[in-house]
Amino acid sequence: xNIKTSLALGLFAVAxxxxxxxxxxxxxxxxELLASxxxxxxxxxxxxxxxxxxxxxxxxxEISARIREFRDGKRAATIMDKIAKGYNDAQIDLIAxxxxxx
Length: 102
What we know:
- With about 100 residues, the chain is mainly alpha-helical.
- It is built from five helices and no strands.
- The relative contact order is 0.20.
């Protein structure tokens, strides 16, 4: 991935941050709505075809753990650490269930 592509993806992801849910309202507990931010980078159903890791082969438990690690600063990231901060534990679990390997 060249620097222009990386920058464009990063800017797009950061632009989506204001839409990251931060409350536990009914709208923000909709798994498909919560997962819509993830699709931008990880692709439909978590099947990324680029340099961004695919997440569709991971279990829901693995996805939950990784998102929490990003959120809590325990896993290095360029963008995910910022995005993950917008989700509470219940929302992370819903996102993980949505994408986790069935």
